[in-house]
Design a protein that fits this description.
Layout (H helix, E strand, L loop, with lengths): L13 H18 L1 E5 H18 L4 H11 L2 H14 L8 E8 L6 E7 L4 H9 L10 H42 L1
Antiparallel strand pairs: 1-3, 2-3
Length: 181
């Protein structure tokens, strides 16, 4: 029976699963984005996010704890040097899973898992968005548009008699010049 067993075993033994997640976490920290199956990405998210949280406090104890999970000095140093300062303000949710479709061979659902603060395209998109909220009634934008339309029509109406008078004098002058010829 499966009572009380909450982890996804991913059809592997405990040692194989631990080694696989450690290798995937090192690759994610090094490359900032990796492609894998959705099940492995979800298991990796549970594995790597507590390590990133622990890397926010740069102490010998936290470095040793993270090293016991990763087993790679370069990944640990990159995590504490590059990743931790970027995610210092973020309260959690350091990874993003983007589904990419299905694998041709076995039709497994594939995805990309990436560190959120290292995707320049997404960061540029969020910076260009405005933070104003729209109301259903239109609000100030609609009233300013209506007043500009009203002032333009009023200006045209006011200009119209002057324009007609100018046109009348021009046509009279043209007729006078034609009669002189």
């Amino acid at each position: 029976m499966r009572h009380g067993k909450k982890n996804n075993s991913l059809s592997r033994t405990a040692s194989h699963r631990k080694a696989m997640l450690s290798n995937m976490a090192c690759s994610l920290i090094e490359h900032k984005r990796i492609s894998t199956t959705v099940a492995k990405a979800k298991a990796l998210r549970v594995y790597v996010e507590p390590l990133i949280t622990k890397s926010k406090t740069d102490s010998t104890h936290s470095r040793r704890t993270v090293f016991s999970y990763l087993g790679n000095k370069e990944s640990v140093s990159e995590l504490f040097r590059e990743v931790a300062p970027k995610v210092a303000n973020r309260p959690g949710g350091y990874t993003r899973i983007i589904r990419t479709g299905f694998r041709l061979g076995d039709n497994a659902e594939m995805c990309m898992i990436e560190l959120v603060d290292f995707n320049e395209l997404m960061l540029n998109e969020t910076s260009t968005k405005s933070t104003t909220r729209r109301s259903r009634r239109g609000g100030a934008k609609a009233t300013t548009a209506e007043t500009t339309v009203e002032t333009e029509t009023e200006a045209k109406v006011e200009d119209a008699p002057e324009a007609k008078a100018d046109e009348a004098t021009e046509t009279a002058a043209e007729e006078g010049t034609e009669e002189e010829k």
